[in-house]
Amino acid sequence: MRILLIPVDARPVTCDIAVEVAAVAGIEVMVPPKEILGFLKEPADLAAIGAWMAEHLPLADAVVVSLDLLGYGGLCPSRFGGVTAAQVKERLAPVFRLKAERPDLPVYAFSATMRIPAYNSDAEEPEYWATYGYDLWRLSYCDDKYQVTGDEAARAEAEAAAARVPAELVAEFRARRARNFAVNLHALDMAEQGLLDLIVFPQDDTSEFGWNIAEQRQLRAEINRRGLGMKALIYPGADEVGLALVARAVNRAAGVTPKFYPFYSSTKGPLIHARYEDRPLGETVKGQIFACGGLLVDSPAEADILLAVNTPGDEQGEAPEQAHRRLVDTAGRNLPEFVARIAHYIREGRPVAVADLAYANGADDALISLLGETVALPDLEAYAGWNTAGNSMGTVAAHAAMRHLGRRTGRLNQGAHLSFLLKRFADDYLYQFQVRTEVREAHGVDRLPPDELLAETARRLEPGLRAFHARHFARAGELKLKQIYLPWKRSFEVGLDLEVIPR
User: Fold this and answer.
1) How far is 338 from 328, CA to CA, in rounded Å?
2) pLDDT tens for each residue of 277-294
3) How many CB atoms lie within 10 A of CB 11?
C-alpha cells in the first residue's frame, strides 16, 4: 500500500514522522522533495508540487493532504496576507476533483484554524506580532469571553487591549482570519458533497476563549447542522495531523480498528487542561485516538494496546522549567505505581505505549528516570513527549496503531520501530528537555549564528544520545547516527537522521 502525503511543511515532525511511523507496518508514504516544501515563512513551490502530485497520484492508494500547504504554501504562510480566499479555493480545486477522477480513492484533508499566540514574537507571525502580539491575543481572548459570558470586566479589558493596537492592524488580522475561515467553510462544503472522506480542522495553539475558538464554535455548529459529525473533526493539534491521518488511512484500508485502554499516572489527570489546548487531557486522548482510526475501550482485556498516560498531579508545566515547577510531580499523582503497572503489563506480554503529557515542550525527567530503571525501553510500543499534549498523543496513537497492524499483517518492521522509538527519546527527552534548555541558558534563544548553534547542539546531543543508546537500546540493536541538523536553523526543533539495526 502507498499513501500520498502532502505535509503542512518540510519539518521532520510534519513530514518525516509519517514516513517513519508508516514504515513500522511496512507501508510506503510518498512525500514531495523537501526542497519544494518551503522554509519557515517562505511558501512552498506550488507549481512543482502540482507536477509531483500528477506524477505520483497514479501510484497512490490513498491521499492525505494539507490544505494549508496547497492553499497558502504552508502552515506559517497561511498566517500572512497576499492571497485571497478565491485564489486559495482555485489552488485547492485539483484536490476536490480527485474523487471525480478516482471515486474509490480515499482522500483525507486537514486545514488549521489560525492560531493566536500569546506573546510578542514575529518568528512565525507577521512583523507587527513582535510589538502587538500579546495585546492582540488579549483582545481576542477577552472579546470572545465577553461575547460568551457577558463578563463586563472582560469587555473592559478587551477595549483596553484594542486601544493599545493600531486599528488598521486589528482590521488586517481579522480580515486574514475571515479569509481562512471562508476557506475552511469551503472545505466543509467539499466534504458534504462527498469529495473528501474526512476533513480535520486542527486547533493550533489554543485556549478557552478567543476569536479562533469563536470560529471553532461556528464550524462545529455547521458540522452539526449538516450532519457531518463523522466526516469533519475539530481537536487541538497541528504538526501531528498528517501522521494521524496516514494512520487512519492505513487502518481503514486494512479494515482494522485498534482498541486502546488508557490508564493515568494521576487520578484527576484526564480532567486537567493542557497548555495551549482548550479541553481536558482525557478529551485530547480520545480525539487523537479517533483521528488515527482507533477507539477507546473500557477494560484491559478488550484492548489491543494499553495506553499509559503520564499526566501532571495538578497542572501541566513547561519541560525546561521542571526543576522549579511545583504542580506537576505532586501528591496528586503516583509515578512508582504507574511505572510498576507498565512493567506488570509488559511482563504479561501486553503491548504498552506511553504518552508523556505531564509537561509541554519536552519529556518528564522523573518518569524517564524511573521508567528506564524498571523496564527495557525497547519493549514499549511507542513513546512521545514533545511540544503539545495533542502532538505527543497523536504520535503515540499512530505509532502504536502501526505496530499493532504490522503484527497482524506479518509486515512488522522492527528496525523502523526501534529507530523511531529511540528518535523520540533522543528528541523529546535528550534534546527538548536537556540540550535545548542548556544551549538557551548558555547562549540565549537563537542568538548564535546558525552554524555555531548547530555545532553547539551536536556537541551536547551526540554524546548523550550514544550513552542513552548504550544503556537502554544496545541489546536491541546497533545505532547508526548519520546526521544531526536544525531544519529551520533555530533551536526550537532538531533533526535526527538515525537508524537502529536490530540484533
Assistant:
1) 15
2) 989 999 999 999 999 999
3) 22
DSSP string across 348-366 = TT--EEEEE-SEESS--HH
Q: Residues 6 or more apart from 373 whose CB is under 8 A from it?
A: none
Give the position of cell 528518535.
423
Q: What is the rounded CA–CA span in Å between residue 394 and residue 244?
A: 6
C-alpha grid cell for residue 250? 492505513
Q: Are 27 and 250 in contact (CB under 8 A)?
A: yes
All cell numbers assigned to 280: 481536558
Statement: the pTM of the whole predicted model exceeds 0.85:
yes
- Cα pseudo-dihedral 290, 294, 300, 301, rounded to 10: 140
Q: 294: which 3 cell numbers? A: 482507533
Report d(CA 106, CA 406) in Å as an integer.
21
Pairing between strand 198-203 and 232-236?
Answer: parallel
Residue pointed to by grid coordinates 541538523? 485
pLDDT beyond 80 at 88: yes
Tell me if 386 sits within 8 A of 426, measured CB to CB.
Answer: no
Instruction: Reply yes or no on whether the pLDDT at 53 is more than 90.
Output: yes
* Confidence tier at 104 by pLDDT (50, 70, 90): very high
Cell of 112: 488549521
Q: Which of 451, 357, 448 is nearest to 397 (CA)?
A: 357
Q: What is the pLDDT of residue 232?
A: 98
Residue 144 and residue 213 in contact, taking contact as beta carbons nearer than 8 Å: yes
Q: How far apart are CA 137 and CA 158, in angstroms?
A: 10
Residue type present at position 291:
A
DSSP string, 32-55: --GGGS-BTTBPP-HHHHHHHHHH
* The three grid cell numbers given for residue 422, joined into one nine-digit string: 529511540
Which residues in 122-154 are b (16+ Cβ under 10 Å) and which e? ebbbbebbeebbbbbbbbbbbbbbbeeeeeeeb
403-435, pLDDT tens digit by residue? 999 999 999 999 999 999 999 999 999 999 999
Work out the widest C-alpha separation in the chain, in whole angstroms.
66
pLDDT for 391 equals 97
Helix (H) / strand (E) element for 249: namely: helix 241-254
Q: How far apart are CA 413 and CA 502, in angstroms?
A: 10
The SS3 of residue 294 is: coil
Angstrom distance (rounded) from CA 278 to CA 236: 7
Please state whether beta strands 477-485 and 495-502 pair in parallel, antiparallel, or not at all (unpaired): antiparallel
Enclosing H/E stretch for 22 = helix 16-24
Identify the CA nearest to 277 among candidates 395, 128, 389, 151: 389
3-state DSSP assignment of residue 234: strand
